[in-house]
Amino acid sequence: MLVTLIFLVGVSSSLALDNGLALTPPMGWLTWERFRCITDCKKYPNECISENLIKRTADLMVNEGYLDAGYEYLGIDDCWLEKERGPDGRMVPDKERFPNGMKAVADYIHSKGLKFGMYEDYGNLTCAGYPGVLGNERLDIQTFVDWEIDYLKLDGCYINPTAMDAGYPAFGKMLNETGRQILYSCSWPAYQEDAKMLPDYASIAEHCNMWRNWDDIEDSWASLTKIMNWFGDNQDRLAQHAGPGHWNDPDMLLIGNFGLTEDQARVQMAVWSILAAPLLMSVDLATIKPEFKAILLNKDIIAVNQDPLGKQGLRVWKKTERGVRSRLEIWNRKLYDGTYAVAFVSQRDDGIPYAASFTADEMQLPKGEYQVQDLYKDEGVRQWNSEDHFEVRVNPSGVKFYKFIPRASSDAIKSDSGFVSDAIVNVLMNNS
Ligand SMILES: *[C@@H]1O[C@H](CO)[C@@H](O)[C@H](O)[C@H]1NC(C)=O
Ligand SMILES: *[C@@H]1O[C@H](CO)[C@@H](O)[C@H](O)[C@H]1NC(C)=O
């Protein structure tokens, strides 16, 4: 069994950017969605993009169990730079907010067992107007290597999207030539989609470990559903390009911030896991409420996201009512052990839990008998035979997220709880 699985992982990764990274969707924390470009540390000492914020977050990631759960990258997004390069042409971190320079930040992060993510932009300027890499690519890559970064998000402001098909691969080649393993996150298709070009996803998957496909996520249910709808509507041209080493990125997790209820936060965690999306938190880990922390740390859902087969799931069914699109929808992801993760998402917001029942065909499950486990553990384990309808009751703007374990497969692999044992997954990760 293990041998076969490792073989599968090996085969898929040969189609990817071959830097040995991101064999499962990257997990970590990134400044942007929650902390944006807050640079006034006098007014907002706990929120400004600074060494303090990064060190505090590093401590919390380790002490509060996020690193153990798999969140290993700690990334700074835009607004870390001085507006001018140094006399030697090098990028200079903001002198007040990063008084000890970036290598010191990297050392701190590494001392905690975390990995260090940085941000730059392929154009003349970053999106927030700081110096971009254009014209200084080699020097900037050398600077990043000197700082020992492990992850680079390369944004695409202030550059023509038509230049990206050649530019992003060329930059990736220079990264590779340094010999340092740096996860390469590209914003290449997001700008091309925005310009109504058709991105060459086959090429993108060959040159990037992950890529932002579309709009920035904002802290609201409206933004979350807009992004979910876009990924569902475009899945036929996106999903095939995801796999070990190369992932579509619907953007950061909003979970724990201002805009989502607990039910809505559960929706994002479920759908991002079905989509095999990078799980990048962007939240103040010092003040996050326990119910949101529990969602981020749900290990059975993280296991779905990190499934070693790396096959992106699909929106397999949706219902339109009175001309309103997609009020209830089913998302299904096939996992390496022959089980299925199935999310029933309600975009209704009209007051009461919505009861519905579905056939195996509607859920796109093979006929047979299943043991069904609620991944949020509100319900006990059910037995279900595909001759019957499967009944669900979903909260408004909420989700029910189940694992369907075929009888034969559950007899063969189940641990005591019936959940895939962490040990098997860990062995796979370490060997692939
Ligand atoms: C560079 O690319 C080669 C060929 O794809 C690969 O084998 C190697 O691991 C890469 N090195 C790094 C540091 O990414
Ligand atoms: C970048 O800046 C240079 C120098 O000001 C300018 O010549 C060039 O057109 C700019 N490129 C883009 C893509 O804006």
UniProtKB/TrEMBL annotation:
Its EC number is 3.2.1.-. It is found in: Lysosome. It comes from the Eukaryota. Residues 1-16 form the signal peptide. GO terms for molecular function: alpha-galactosidase activity. Its main location: other. Keywords: Disulfide bond, Glycoprotein, Glycosidase, Hydrolase, Lipid metabolism, Lysosome, Signal. One of its GO terms (biological process) is glycolipid catabolic process. Residues 310-398 form the Alpha galactosidase A C-terminal domain. InterPro entries: Aldolase_TIM, GH, Glyco_hydro_27, Glyco_hydro_b, Melibiase/NAGA_C. Coiled coil: none annotated. GO terms for cellular component: lysosome; membrane. Belongs to the glycosyl hydrolase 27 family. Homodimer. This is Alpha-galactosidase. It comes from Spodoptera frugiperda (Fall armyworm).
